[in-house]
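Extended Data, panel c. Modelled sequence:
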Amino acid sequence: MKVYQRYIAREVATAVLLVLLAFLALFAFFDLLGEVGSLGQGGYKIQHAFVYVLLRLAGRAYELMPLAILIGTLYALANLSRHSEITVLRASGLSTGRLLVCLCQIAAAFAVLTFLIGEYIAPPAEQAASQLRLKEQGRTMQELRSVRNLRSGLWVKDERSFINIRVLLSDKSLRGIRIFEFDEHGRLRSFTEAAEGEFAASDGWQLTNVVRTVLRDDSASVDKLAEMTWRSALNPEILAVLMLSPDRMSLRHLSAYTRHLSENRQRTNRYDIAFWKKIVYPLAGLVMVALALPFSAGHHRATGIGLQIFVGVMVGVLFHTLNGLSSNLGAIHGWSPLLSAATPSVLFLLAAALMIWWVERR
């Protein structure tokens, strides 16, 4: 790497990291304020709120990375332009294309960092944060009912069985389990109700206080069992992903849960979009540096850095809004998952290319 490349990389990387830290501090403050209302519920205290907010910072960093790259690059390039360093580099033969390649190399490093955070750090940290909050508040995971918007609890399909779980505890044990088993003709063949369920890796689920009703063509039998083994594709790993929104899941969990839904003939569009979004989103940093480049190409030394940062914030907010809007519209209308995930980045990349072309023609 040449001297000027190392210099630009250092300036841009430093600015991006400073902007990211500033955003994380701001969002951590607001998240902590949001937890004030929950203090005193059960054993939930201020120290638990601090830990909860800290555990969520990885997810915040993943979300904010493209915006930090855009604003950090804008700030660094504006600083270089203000001190005529960009002018000197261009007079020495540095073209816009070579400068863009240099910036893309920096953005590629941040793209790798974004992917690693989103895949290996943020999902377990978010899950640990949710478990901590629920445990200290002495609450069960009743909010999982919002997955299906049913007051009766969580409903899951497993082959020809429909499972209703009233309560899922933070340790993945189950309370209030009902299992409806149907035959190949769609007729109800058995109904099992259990008070509790614990997962054993070798044997499946161990149900306790079980009442099992078996329906036959002309009769029915009811058995009461202290314990019963229940084998199902449903396992704690699949239940764990339900603690997170699809955007916060790892690719491994998204793939496993999508496969489970497909095997049970359920819609997977929402999770397919989240899967492709996890792949495309880290590449948004490359788009952001391309957007930042035209603002430094005019060499307007009198242009305030504050104005450029304001423009960067507005562009970043617009990108974040379109990113969420595209995913939601794709899930509602059944668009191609890859198209729904990639459309905002492609549109902003085209806008960046048009801006660079217009600046170069002046």
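The domain at 144-242 is CATH 2.60.450 (lipopolysaccharide transport protein A fold). This feature is highlighted in the accompanying rendering.
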